[in-house]
Every structure is written in structure tokens, then in C-alpha cells.
Amino acid sequence: MTRRDVIRGAAALAAAKALAQAAPPFTLPPLPYAASALEPYIDTQTMEIHHDKHHKAYVDNLNKAVAAHPELANRKLDQLLRDLPNVPEPIRVAVRNNGGGHWNHSLFWQTLGKPKEGPSGKLAAAVDKSFGSREAFEGKLQAAGLTVFGSGWVWVMPQGGGLAIETSPNQDTPIMSGREPLFGIDVWEHAYYLKYQNRRAEYLSAAMHVLNWDFLSQRYSGMAG
Ligand code: MN
Known about the structure:
This protein is mainly α. The protein has a domain at 121-224: minor pseudopilin epsh fold. It contains 9 helices and 3 strands, in the order ααααααβββααα.
């Protein structure tokens, strides 16, 4: 190895480091539709602020948390969340809250859309098996969303060939216990306050009109055992 090779190697290393610094590990995914796509059920301004400000803040704060821990550089988000006890203690709460926020919202945007039809295939069968009808399922989902005290999520979990509904506080996510949700509905006030103020029940009812059943039916068919 010549001196020139050493210098070239050092330059390449510096360039790689600069690139790593320029590209934080976690990035905000774009909304898969226009911010106005869910009108009138979820308004444009709520979608813009929710995605561009709230979700972005989770991503930025997650990147800040892991920046001082290069040993975490290659960990995927779900690996971090599934193994929180082994995340360094000084950033564990930040990873739980901001990593949970990033994971939950990334799924949430895909969950929404303007559906033309209801659940199909295995998902339709699972809805009928566990709840008797789509209407009963949506009723249970809304009722569970109302029981969340303060900020949190209501989740639909694949379970035994059917579905189960559960809730979590804050940005806690089923991924933290190694379980993959079919979908979740955000019941933080920031998800609905501009249009619905304190009327969470109206927001939850509106949300039933913008569930992307094509996406959810496809997702469930890949999950159901
Ligand atoms: Mn949110």
C-alpha cells in the first residue's frame, strides 16, 4: 500500500462519514395520496399538520436519539421497538415514543384512503368470524377508540384466524411486544381537533368512511396464519 493509497483511503472514509451524517437513518415517508384526499371526513389542514409536523417531529427526534449511538446504526425500526430493553437507557424513552410514533403513523397513512368497497377475501371472513358483520366490527372499533383516556391508539390485531381489538396509550405499539397489528386508528387530539374539536366520536365515525379496505384486505392475507 503506497502513501497515495493511504491518502485515498482516508479521503474515502471521510466522504463516507460525511454521507452518513448527511443521511439520517430514518426518513419521513410521503403521504400516499394528496392531503385533501380524505375530505370531507378528515380535512386537508389536519392531514398536512399531522403528517408534515407531527410525524416529521417523531422522525427527527428519533434520528437525534440514535445519532449518539453508532452501534444502533444498522438497526431497523421494528428491531429497536421489539427489543427496547436493549436500547441504551438514556435514549430508551425517546426511542419508545418517537420510534413508536414513526412506526404507527407510517402504517396509519396506508390504512386510510377512499375505499369503494369493504373488506374482501380472508379479511371479510375474519370480520364475520369475530364480529358477525362489518357494521358490528366498526361499532366495536369506535367504542374502543372512545375508551382511550388521553392520547393513544386503537388497534386491530390478527388473532386465531379472526381479529381482536385493543388499545394502547401514547405512541406505544403492539410491535413492542413482537406482535404485528393489521392497523391502528390514531385517537390523539392532533388527529381530529381542528375539524371535530373534542368530538372524538364524530372523528371515529368519519374514519370508518376512509379505511382503505383494499390495502387492509391485502395486508391481512399476508399475515393470517
Ligand atoms: Mn398522530
